[in-house]
Amino acid sequence: MGDITIKTPEEIEVMRYAGAVLTRTLDRLGGAIKVGISTKELDDIADEFICSHEGCIPGFKGYHGFPGSLCASINEETVHGIPSADRILKNGDIIGLDCGVYYKGLHTDACRTYIVGEASPQVKQFVKVTKGALKEAVQQVRPGGTIGDISAAIQGALEPFGYAPVIECTGHGVGHDLHEAPEILNAGKKGTGPVMRPGMVLAIEPISAMGSGKIRQAKDHWTLCTVDGSLSAHFEATVLVTEKGHEILAG
Does this model's pTM top 0.85? Predict the structure, then answer.
């Protein structure tokens, strides 16, 4: 991935705007989720809303050939689900909607997992705990802290509930490229790894499974799924390291 880049004040302003657009995109998607909607319809909503902001385009569309503006991952799918008119949401599904906004040469990246209709208490807890893992991880972002602090916080939030961090999927730096250094594992040891400095921008993304956490690639060569078919949840935020702590740019 190369060296960890420090963003200039001007670049941070660009990413702050792109992040605000991305956050509003996820808000709009959350309001649109219902039983019977297709993931293609959700993709269209994201595409149209992002492009309605001058200079903004969906950061994922065409990235290494990816066909959608969203990654829409349902139930046992961990990441990179391709939107389709044939994927219709059912009551009790959970869906991770991962999205990016590219603006003036810079990327932002964020994801939320939503419950469709009603779900069991066990599923509600699973989604809530994974969301909480992101909150715990973001709290570790500060100058002088380490990337391992973030990884350890994610692992520590998930494992006491019996959930597995998905190790093969990682967070990352973000900015000029969608995926930059450093790699941010979803499990690790506090006090290890690169030291955080003001101006770094990190895409922190806890991805969890109710089962083993082992994953496989689907036949579409994009979608990653749990090997055991267990549910997977995913939350992500773009976070700036500031002089005194952190600022969430998108999430």
Answer: yes
- Cβ pair 106, 15 in contact under 8 A: yes
pLDDT tens, position by position, 73-130? 999 999 999 999 999 999 999 999 999 999 999 999 999 999 999 999 999 999 999 9
Peptide bond just before 58 cis, omega within 30 deg: no
**Of residues 48, 68, 72, the one with CA closest to residue 60:** 68
d(CA 86, CA 69): 17
Fold of 9-250: Creatine Amidinohydrolase (3.90.230)
In the chain, domain spans? 9-250
- CA dist list (Å): 162 to 165, 185, 213: 10, 18, 11
- The upper half-sphere exposure of residue 208, i.e. CA atoms within 13 Å in the direction of its Cβ, equals 31
Cα–Cα distance for residue pair 2/94, rounded to 1 Å? 35
Residue 1: pLDDT band (50, 70, 90) is: low
